[in-house]
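Data deposition worksheet. Section B asks for the primary sequence of the deposited chain exactly as it was used as input, without tags or linkers unless they were present during the calculation. Section C holds the resulting structure in token form. Section D is free text for depositor observations; keep each observation to a single sentence. Incomplete worksheets are returned to the depositor.
Section A, Depositor: J.P.
Section B:
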Amino acid sequence: MMHLFKRSLLVVSLFMTMSCAFGQSSKAQLDSLFHTGEKSYRQGNFEKAAAYYCVAADQGYAKAQNELGNMYVSGNAVPKDYSQALKYYQAAAKQGEGDAFFSMGVLYELGKGVHKDSIQADKCYKKALVAYQIAADKGDKTVFSGLGDLYTYGKGVDSDRKQAVTYYRMGADQGDASAQSRLGNAYAIGKSIPKDYTLALKYLHLAADQGYASALRSLGDLYYLGGGVAQDYKQAAQYYELAAKRKDVSAQKMLGDMYYVGKGVTQDYAEAMKYFQLAAEQGNAKAQNNVAHMYLNGYGVAKDLTLAVKYFRLSAKQGYASAQNNMGYIYAHGYGVTKDYKQAVKYYRLAADQGSASAQNSLGQMYYFGRGVDKNYTEAARLYELAAKQGDTNAQCGLGIMYVMGKGVLKDSIIGRKLLRFAADNGNQSARHFLNKMK
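Section C:
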């Protein structure tokens, strides 16, 4: 990929040199380079886009510097590098580029490439607001989506979704794809303005016709869910594929899901793995968990416990409860790692604290048997009850047995039988077996 980028950069640099030799104005040439890069990006040709942006950015073109910063954040055509992204954002910000201030605010807020600093982030967002307003006064139609985002998320200003929609509409009416996409989504969601699928589809199609990836993905969502259109999984998959080619991470993950179960496409684990992997490489926690699941079970790829653990860990590190629960299971059973009950308890607790019924049940079992923690029937019963209320049949079975035996709770065979019967009726074989023993 980097070889293609360097080759594209050489071609664009040569083109730039020849154009300047014929006396074309530097400003006009830089405008042309940037817009060609922008068009290439929306077509999914990221190497070509990066090459055009790089030539323009090296000559001080602020919007190109900002877009290169975005590419270093996402890792499209260039290695993911937050420090390099910050360098380009700072260069663009010095020229008053509002998007660059906004992006710097995000980096400071999240601590990416810099130390996390909420005060510095707020300063950047406030500077973005001023820069956007100045650019808007000069007729820059591309800044309205940024203004809308500041008001949507309350960055540098008090959150005001109605004001955000006003800005999105201003940009959309001037043909800006990002504003059209945001306005379309606002109509589809119906929080800040009345829900209107007709207008949602109108604006999303306008943005999609310009190759805007998130609009293509949103159209896929509408067809997938049947929002304003007849539910059509095949049509949804087609839109997701167009968005996925433009590296929309949510579309990549959704396509993986669809290939995994065969919804709108022919079931194909290898294709599912391909799209999960693409999304995982962009840091999507759910996709990382899915990639781990594929490696764990050998679906669409050779079984590899080491890689399964790697991706479960990556996902769990981002706080994804399912992955944390899976890490707990891996440590509890020694799959791909040395069995370690204390580590299992750690991960089960992280997931249980987020409300995962499976993790609550598993953590309850650890307390019941005294694995990785001191045996504690009262705590086990508490955790089983949390999971049982969410419909976890294993927890219902465990809690039912505890009531029958009077462990951790006051003995009550009526409640115990009721829980066991409920679990058994929902297919839990352990509950059926215990009930049969009680006869």
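Section D:
Residues 405 and 411 are 6 Å apart (CA to CA).
Confidence is low (pLDDT under 50) at residues 1-5, 7-25.
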